[in-house]
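Lab notes, practical 5.
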Amino acid sequence: MKIGFVSLGCPKNLVDSEVMLGLVEEAGHEITSDAGGADVVVVNTCAFIDRAKQESIDTILEMAEFKKQVTGRRLVVTGCMAERYREELQREIPEIDAVLGTGEVPRILEAINGTQTVQVGAVRPLMFYKSDRPAERNEAPVFGIDLPDYLYDATTPRRLATPGHYAYVKIAEGCDYKCAFCIIPKMRGHYRSRTVESVVQEARQLAARGVKELLLISQDTTFYGIDRKERGALPRLLRELNRVDGIEWVRLLYLYPTTISDDVIDAIAECDKVCRYIDLPLQHASNSVLRRMKRPGTRTAYESLLARMRERIPGVTLRTTFIVGFPGETDADFDELLAFVAAVRFDHVGVFTYSHEEGTGAHALTDDVAPRVKKKRQSRLMARQKQIVAQQQRARIGAHVRMVVDGRSPQHELVLRGRLEGQAPDIDPQVYLTEADPDTAMAGSFLDVEIVGADGYDLVARPLERERPSGSQAGWRRAD
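Output from the prediction step:
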């Protein structure tokens, strides 16, 4: 059979899609990117916030239309929305043939073959957005008791959906935190780490397939191993991955401000293949908002941590995300966040407006910040960050740095695009490389370049003639 996949949401969801793709391919089915020509279409959904749920519903409905065109075509829905709203999906969208929650990834073959026994859990209310029915919200959600416990390992088949030179590696699944705005623990289950040996084995397998960059992900990457009573597991893992032949960069995503230890900071500083890049979602800087969010830490503690990182990891790139408009956020709270961003001067910042989600701790709070105020605060914070970035970009002109080539620019076939050590794929700005030969500098190539300009958040560079040994660190440094 021909199987088409649509994967929505975060990289953690993408890894689940890649595992399902691997299982399907291993069973002898053909993978197709043409949903209209597929015998079975699988939609791996996200349900983190309203916008993600909207995208998931829209995609399911679009694929349902494809199903109607061919008798016998099947539609399978998987992922977070299936985990959270199993019964509602099947009731409201009868075109769906099977649903698989986040803990049922290995059952994908049953689902596409039509042999799945559907297990309906407790009713979990969903706000649907079909144009022919008004939006409704049930204020009394009931969630199932059983939480997912699935965790893939190095022996699990996996077909990469990323470009061949980089891959996400999920080192743990689930989350034990109770952040007031987040539904993830109820959709993904308790935190559970893979072993160091399993992750390293997978890294070697990926390197043998040509992968040069590993992006380590989980809900809280710095909690890795703690659930297994293995304190120090993350520094050990980084040092083991640093010795894997063929890997050039190891990048950490989704670190947590109160679980990042000095041992982790030291490992990042000491391992030449570990990117000097820290993705640390802080969510806010006002102590009163952080308390209502049920986030540990304070502004003072965050400032101390960030200063320590910069001191011990020279040239480190700092990335964070914030939520504006959380219940009870005052003008003074927001002004404190603005001042914090201006003082710390992050390299990359993402800003989300608060989404009032049923089933979260914050849902009992009054969503008292008007949508227009949320959007205005988001715009003001991003405008402040844009000013900071413009100043940083000017300071980088003339720097000699190392970049990885991701491919040709979609706007100009003679221009290559890629990333520096301080830029992660999909979420951060890019580097556009001029004066390079697109036929010789292939995707996955590492080049020494000089920064010659900036285009908004992105950088413009030209290649340098001299080569730097593989695996060396660049950081930001001025040209001689």
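Observations recorded by the TA: The radius of gyration is 23 Å. DSSP finds 13 helices and 18 strands in the chain.
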